[in-house]
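Re: that chain you flagged

S.,

Sorry for the slow reply, it's been a week of failed gels. I finally had a moment to sit down with the sequence you sent. For the record, here it is as I used it:
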Amino acid sequence: QKCEKRARNLVRRSLFAAKDLRAGQTLRDEDLVALRPLEPEGVPAEKEPRLIGRRMRRPADKGTSLQPVHF
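Prediction finished late last night. Pasting the structure tokens below so you have them in one place:
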């Protein structure tokens, strides 16, 4: 239901930059932090294992909600 979908997004987490990340940087576990809520365009926290070891295509400042365009 619609109300359940909204509540689900509030309790789910998105990935954010734990520090300033530059383009070309290889991601490590300590570069990412999972925070609530799930951002509409954000990367869900459960995808974190797939991102470790990938390179950033675009820079992201600390606290930025990471999106698919960053990778």
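What I noticed first: The mean pLDDT is 92.

Talk soon,
D.
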